[in-house]
Write a structure and sequence with these properties.
This protein is an alpha/beta fold. It is built from 22 helices and 20 strands. The radius of gyration is 25 Å and the shape is globular.
Length: about 550
């Protein structure tokens, strides 16, 4: 423990955060946060990253946590600020992002008078947090901070919340800071010999693997590649991913699953078994009268979160354990079970390599056929963006190109791509700022639709303020195209039959993204030709600073 001396609660909080290795506090200050802001003066270890709106602040911390592997720390402003942040806290809860969320609270000594800014912060935060609590004395701060960091990262990871009244932050205390606890939360699954025997019974290429987000969390891609090669098993990404945790240039990669149950069933038709790694493999968006798991296809699962196993579909065998450590052991058992069938699996691997090259060529030819259209087709834009971006990390909230972009990614990176897992818009632009901070202020590309960009354009200001090399690419079709397509896919909508869509067009007036970017100090340009996309994006990434590129695309 540190030697106790008399200091204010805000200083106690910062000391506890420093011992947890916190680099950044993401916030937007108000009156109730002034004790913390004042205590930051002279601190060298913790840097305050200022956002101009609380939803933006939450997404920055989310991106930082996903990129760095450490909990993001947030400081919001009373009930109103916490309310602003709820949408992105829902995203974080859905994504399983570890966040330690704090908010300033009114001085509790006059709470009975119903002062301005007073609110029941614990009640507001509870639905989006693993737990929420108000600190009542500075002596509670060290233990509650320790508990918050432990519980934010424990399975399933997610946000925790602490309410910080002004009088607690200003009160003095001699409380000591306890040492950090180290807890190994990575169990090896049981029944792995039985699982290996079950998987080894299937013919080569008849088991499909679904690679879920836990592979990224636990850095298990080497083990997944080894598993896929051992079984000659095609690998699909989950239907609504946070990441692509498998190398997109590997010959067994088959892309992400669709978001309708009927589409998922079609994608995995012909396989005798599915081995789902990481839970939440069959997320659907629109209802269809079908099961995502084809009849007669056996399901096996491995996840560290037992709540996701056997939840919707019956499984032959599901096991609870850390993906990386459990697959290491499973692969050893599989090697024994498959030792006498190497020729069979070698032949299937060779067929898979040929099929991978054929699909890649067909994809390129399909894009080539669209390249001469008067307006840029989203598929062509996605190919040009993928080529220009290379292996630079991508934070994607551009829904009109996301599916195409994933198809065109072709490299060995397993930490390149991040997506809006929670589904609530406004995450992408600020998350890209957090990602850059989480990887040591290195370049990141933020892909965002024109509609999504208007949820959190304040992120542009922070990118300039922090001098971050984030390239914002606004893919602009001047409408909510995804909503129109959803309606078109359902024959009963009048809008789909008449072509009249209420509240789905962004062209009266069109949004001037160049002016918007310039108002916050970000250089910007608009592109309306295919040939201009690649050099513009490459130059922006190489510039080492923030920039915005608007790409005008056709509807699809």
């Amino acid at each position: 423990m540190t030697h106790p001396d008399v200091r204010r609660g805000a200083h106690v909080l910062l000391e506890a955060l420093e011992t947890e290795g916190v680099e950044y506090i993401f916030g937007n200050p108000g009156t109730t946060e002034l004790p913390l802001i004042d205590a930051l003066i002279g601190r060298q270890k913790v840097h305050y990253v200022m956002g101009l709106q609380e939803a933006t602040v939450v997404a920055m911390a989310d991106g930082y946590a996903q990129a760095s592997g450490k909990p993001g720390v947030i400081n919001l402003h009373t009930a109103g600020g916490l309310g602003h942040g709820l949408g992105n806290l829902i995203n974080a809860r859905t994504s399983g992002t570890p966040l330690v969320v704090t908010a300033g609270q009114q001085d509790s000594r006059h709470a009975f008078t119903d002062p301005l800014l007073q609110g029941d912060l614990v009640a507001i935060a509870t639905p989006v947090s693993k737990w929420a609590q108000e600190v009542t004395t500075p002596e509670q701060i060290p233990v509650l901070v320790r508990r918050a960091f432990q519980d934010a990262t424990a399975t399933p990871p997610g946000p925790v919340f602490l309410s910080l009244p002004m009088n607690v932050m200003e009160a003095t205390s001699e409380v000591a800071i306890p040492e950090v606890s180290h807890v190994d939360r990575r169990p090896v699954a049981g029944s792995l010999p039985e699982l290996a025997k079950a998987l080894a019974r299937y013919p080569a290429g008849k088991v499909a693997i679904i690679a879920g987000d836990e592979i990224s969390t636990h850095d298990a891609h080497h083990e997944v590649v080894a598993l896929a090669e051992a079984l000659a098993a095609p690998v699909f990404g989950s239907s609504w991913p946070a990441h692509i945790p498998y190398p997109t240039g590997h010959y067994l990669w088959r892309g992400n699953l669709p978001t309708k149950a009927v589409g998922i069933a079609e994608a995995v038709a012909g396989f005798d078994a599915i081995f789902a790694l990481g839970g939440k493999s069959f997320i659907t968006v629109l209802y269809t009268d079908a099961s995502a798991l084809p009849e007669g296809c056996a399901l096996y699962q491995l996840s560290v979160d037992g709540r996701d196993l056997g939840r919707t579909y019956p499984t032959r065998l599901s096991v609870v354990g850390d993906i990386q450590l459990s697959l290491k052991a499973l692969n050893e058992h599989l090697a024994v079970e498959l030792a006498r069938r190497e020729a069979e699996f070698d032949a299937e691997r060779e067929r898979a390599r040929d099929a991978f090259d054929t699909r890649r060529l067909a994809l390129m030819e399909k894009a080539d056929a669209l390249i001469d259209r008067p307006k840029i087709h989203p598929m062509v834009a996605a190919r040009e963006l993928a080529e220009a971006i290379g292996e630079t990390p991508i934070v994607d909230e551009a829904l009109c190109t996301a599916h195409h972009l994933r198809n065109f990614l072709h490299n060995q990176s397993v930490r390149q791509y991040s997506f809006l897992r929670g589904g609530a818009l406004g995450w992408g632009m600020p998350a890209a700022i957090g990602f850059s901070l989480g990887i040591g202020r290195k370049p990141v590309v933020s892909l965002v639709g024109d509609g999504a960009a208007m949820y959190s354009p304040q992120a542009l200001w922070t990118a300039v303020n922090e001098k971050l090399p984030v390239t914002f690419v606004v893919v602009n079709n001047r409408e909510y195209n995804i909503l129109k397509n959803f309606m078109r896919s359902q024959q009963h909508y009048t809008s789909a039959r008449t072509g009249q869509f209420i509240a789905m067009d962004l062209n009266d007036p069109p949004i001037d993204f160049q002016a918007l970017a310039a108002s916050m100090g970000v250089p910007a340009q608009r592109i309306d030709t295919v040939a201009a996309i690649r050099p513009a994006v490459e130059a922006a990434i190489a510039s080492g600073g923030p920039s915005l590129i608007e790409v005008l695309v056709d509807t699809e």
